From TrEMBL:
Residues 202-417 form the Glycosyltransferase 2-like domain. GO terms for molecular function: beta-1,4-mannosyltransferase activity. This is Membrane glycosyltransferase. GO terms for cellular component: cytoplasm. The chain crosses the membrane at residues 32-50, 56-81, 368-394, 406-423, 444-462. The keyword Transcription regulation does not apply.
């Protein structure tokens, strides 16, 4: 496993760089859908309000009012994105990175049903990143004896920028870490051994089903070059936006359901990671970390870790407060192939995040913040409108107003924000697709299905909580990856 020498490639022209920068910055989140939804919901709620001091009134007052703290943080992030885009002329323009080395790290379980997506993603790295990163390498990180090992080796032989890093079956970390975190820790130790844990080496973490485009390369290069000029204020970690192009989707239903995820990136993640302290966690795609900084943290978090990216972020908060950032670059993933995989994915996330809430190695203030979000998530099925109406029917209490009228304002903010996340997330996914125009029925269907999507999100979270409480063994479930 010797290091692959970097390959010098032809750089893009200044005209092409300007065109890519214009494409990268052409999108900004719209807030009008939120305002419209808020006015409609607030007006109707005031008109229909009847005091409701019943147990049902108290229950829905709490359940439907609880998310407001997270909603306000998310909306702050949206406004921050819009403000940064207005300041684009004062930012460092995209240009090739001449002095830093980029390592793209792609962990994969190496199954045959995940290989097509891996190939699509890796080929996008070697096509689009070299014009902006003349010094780079792509490391495919896999397990010894994986099913698709032969195909992965053949892929690496097709391009000098690719190498395969194989984690030996006998490899164990000091703390007994398993799954993806174990593989990441092996890679981290290998970089230290090869002398690549330096300030001018960056590790771009990607999933094996998530590709990049020329606009992604421009945005990452812009961030890296900006740190060169920042001096003592330089950042050590940053995250971009995960989008789901329509053409990568196997299921239209799960593609629409995943509209919430890019919206979360431009809202909650922008507000937290973008202000320097990623206490809301990060996701493992389009996450760039200075290699020297990652070397001080590592990935050896223990055997219960299955949301290793979130734990990395929380450890980063303790050691490097104020040193993370957010950038307006997009990567291109794929939503789960079906509802079953969708639920498995959410269940795993919930199990891992609940475990973090009880991890005493993490400061209590960070665990409380994650815990507030998890309570709202796992209680999702209890917040469902259908369940509330069913309880009202069984109890003969048809009044579903809150206890006091003042709570109507919080409800309107929360419900309008949920509508905005799916509306705007759908728009961002469509903008990232080959066909940049929404089909006429897509916004209608995505809004109409919000109760169903919310129930599935909450049901997956509740299943994860139940498995944690039953002390069932945590499993890093890897779903099939569409090509």
């Amino acid at each position: 496993m010797t290091s692959t020498a970097p390959v010098r490639t032809v750089l893009t022209t200044s005209r092409e760089a300007a065109r890519l920068a214009e494409r990268q910055m052409s999108w900004k989140p719209r807030v009008l859908p939120f305002y419209v939804a808020f006015l409609i919901i607030f007006s109707f709620s005031l008109w229909a309000y009847v005091p409701n001091p019943t147990p049902l009134g108290w229950a829905i007052t709490v359940l439907w009012g609880m998310p407001v703290f997270g909603v306000l943080i998310g909306f702050q992030g949206v406004l921050m994105v819009r403000r940064r885009l207005r300041q684009v002329d004062r930012m460092t323009p995209p240009a090739p990175v001449e002095d830093d080395f980029l390592i793209v790290l792609v962990p994969t379980i190496g199954r045959h049903d995940t290989y097509p997506a891996l190939e699509r993603s890796v080929l996008s790295y070697v096509e689009h990143l070299p014009p902006y990163f003349p010094w780079m390498r792509v490391d495919i990180l896999t397990e010894e004896g994986c099913a698709a090992a032969e195909k992965i080796d053949e892929l690496a032989e097709r391009h000098p920028l690719i190498r395969v890093v194989t984690v030996p079956k006998a490899y164990e970390t000091a703390n007994g870490t398993k799954f993806k975190a174990r593989a990441n820790h092996y890679s981290h130790e290998l970089r230290i051994e090869e002398g690549e844990a330096e300030d001018d080496v960056w590790v771009l973490h990607m999933d094996d089903d998530t590709g990049v485009g020329p606009d992604t390369a421009a945005a990452v290069a812009q961030f890296v070059n900006r740190q060169r000029r920042a001096g003592d204020d330089a950042k050590h970690m940053a995250q971009g936006i995960l989008t789901y192009p329509r053409e990568n989707a196997v299921s239209t239903f799960t593609w629409l359901a995943d509209a919430i995820r890019p919206a979360d990136d431009i809202a909650r993640f922008r507000a937290m990671t973008g202000t320097g302290t990623p206490i809301a966690g990060v996701h493992g795609e389009l996450l760039i970390v200075r290699s020297s900084v990652e070397a001080t943290i590592g990935w050896d978090f223990g055997p219960k870790t299955i949301v290793e990216d979130a734990q990395l972020a929380l450890n980063f908060c303790q050691r490097y407060p104020g040193r993370s950032d957010w950038f307006n670059g997009r990567c291109y993933g794929a939503s789960p192939a079906g509802v079953k995989d969708f639920l498995k994915q959410r269940e795993r996330w919930a199990w891992g995040l609940v475990a973090l809430c009880f991890n005493k190695t993490i400061p209590l203030r960070y665990r409380l913040f994650i815990g507030m979000g998890m309570v709202s998530w796992v209680l999702g099925p209890l917040q469902h409108v259908g369940l509330v109406l069913m309880v009202a029917w069984f109890t003969g209490t048809w009044n579903t107003s809150p206890v006091t009228q003042s709570v109507v304002l919080l409800w309107a903010i929360n419900f309008a924000y949920v509508i905005w996340t799916y509306w705007e997330g759908l728009r961002l996914n469509v903008v990232s697709s080959a066909n940049h125009r929404r089909k006429w029925w897509e916004p209608i269907v995505v809004v109409a299905c919000i109760p169903l999507f919310s129930f599935l999100e909450g049901w997956g979270g509740l299943r994860g909580l139940i498995k944690f409480l039953k002390r069932e063994e945590n499993k890093f479930v890897v779903i099939a990856k569409p090509a």
